[in-house]
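The protein record quoted in full:
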Amino acid sequence: MTAKSAMYLVGVLGSLLWTSVSAADQLPDLRFTEEKYDIGCVGVDFKIYHTIKMVNYGQDTIHIDTMTGHCDCTEVRFRDSVVAPGDTARGLMIFNTADMYGPIEKDIRVYSSDKKSHYAYLSYLANVGQWLYQVEPKPVSVFFLPGQKSRNSTFLNHELESITLQDIRLEGDFVDVRTIRSRAGKGESLELEITPKATLPPGTHITNFTAIIGLPEGGTPLRITVPVKVVKY
């Protein structure tokens, strides 16, 4: 290699390194642990809850100032407003599907004392009141009166050759979910058993779970979120 070629190579490598460092320096220190949250299909006029987490990747303590939703349909709450270096701040996003219909995409923003970026945002998706691929939850929400031990939640497959239950994402620790039937052909249903925790204190407890459903042709699984309300005396 000639001296001229070596100098050119060093210059290119230095430029790439500088670009990489500069890009890293521009990243915010307080960041969400997820960039996008997919609620999936959900009924109309329900509140959907989702735990959110933010990590302080910097060397300085960051103070969370304000939290805003895309509109009045979304509320954001954080337990702590001070996040030390390396610590995680946990919060709650509450999305109200009232007055919504069809596919939506919105975001929440958290403003802080982060010197690199004064706010971080998380986008979220939902399909309100529409059941994609004709896979329909029955019931649309699960409600427990005092004394009720368990209820079944089904997902009716109207037209696909077959569907499979791949996973259940449960919000909170208010209920247990047990799989009864994990595969359903056309005209059949996936089936779950929902049971409130025996240790729940008296009161009204609201949560939700998301069923991750595999489709016959593969690809992105279908997500259906089912609200759950437990009243206990």
